[in-house]
Specification:
By secondary structure, the protein is mostly helical. The protein is built from two helices and no strands. This is Small VCP interacting protein.
């Protein structure tokens, strides 16, 4: 059977520096996030470009303000409406 503790004459292996350990954990977390974000996506760059374009359009809409006439189009009287 295995032993849980080192022999009395042996010293425990040195633990890594706290800052070094934090840096490695941060790198691993970033790597996992990238992998999770690109899971199931064949062309990551294309998806990123589309996302940026969508954000740009949404920002333009937000800064342009509301449409001048409320944004609804009403058919003039006498013309058929599409249902």
């Amino acid at each position: 059977m295995g032993l849980c503790f080192p022999c009395p004459g042996e010293s425990a292996p040195p633990s890594p520096d706290l800052e070094e350990k934090r840096a490695k954990l941060a790198e691993a977390a970033e790597r996992r996030q990238k992998e999770a974000a690109s899971r199931g996506i064949l062309d990551v760059q294309s998806v990123e470009q589309k996302r940026k374009k969508k954000e740009k359009i949404e920002k333009q809409i937000a800064t342009s303000g509301p449409p001048p006439e409320g944004g609804l189009r009403v058919a003039p009287k006498g013309l058929p409406t599409i249902n």
